[in-house]
Amino acid sequence: MGEKLVVVLGHAGYYPRFGFRRASSFGIRASFDAPDEALMALPLDDSPAVPGGVIRYPAAFGV
User: What is the pTM of this model?
Assistant: First the structure.
């Protein structure tokens, strides 16, 4: 579908086994307070440039 990256907010002991790394290492952060170790990202291709920026959730999530 053309997506280049997956970002999750989850358990720091679970997602790394699938290749996820701290999102902050890619220049990605949340627009709300979240533990650095819990916000993780996984590039889906070999592209050298991973998009960085701020993750914003829809209002329905309340964050």
Answer: 0.84
